[in-house]
Design a protein that fits this description.
This protein is an all-alpha fold. Helix content is 61%, strand content 0%. The chain has four helices and no strands. It has helices at residues 3-15, 30-45, 52-73, 85-100. Helix 2 (30-45) packs antiparallel against helix 3 (52-73) and helix 3 crosses helix 4. The relative contact order is 0.11.
Length: 109
């Protein structure tokens, strides 16, 4: 058996020992998530009102950050399972839960 084959077998053995081949990507720090949420919240009120495409893009980014922040702080969320007015209500509920957990979502006026 050649050296190259031995190295390949060792790699395969490492992958089969129960450890994932590709680890999950790291979650951003909660401070960065909060800053992103504040920025996207402002965009929802500003630039996202100028175009339907921008509005949809900003809402999707906002929802993705809400999901990450919820996961970091252990807040249950159901953004993927609801739509329409229920989705808006779920956003408000999650924002409230995150703020109750200590996350500042809106910059002080």
């Amino acid at each position: 058996m050649t050296m190259r084959n031995r190295l390949l077998l060792r790699r395969l053995d490492r992958r089969w020992d129960g450890t994932p081949a590709d680890p999950a990507p790291p979650t951003p720090a909660i401070e960065f998530l909060a800053a992103d949420l504040r920025r996207l919240y402002r965009h929802r009120l500003g630039i996202a009102t100028q175009s339907l495409v921008w509005h949809i893009a900003v809402l999707r980014a906002y929802d993705a950050r809400l999901r990450l922040a919820s996961r970091c702080l252990g807040v249950p969320e159901h953004l993927d399972t609801v739509s329409g007015m229920d989705l808006e209500i779920e956003r408000v509920r999650i924002e409230s839960e995150l703020e109750a957990a200590g996350l500042v979502l809106r910059a002080p006026s």
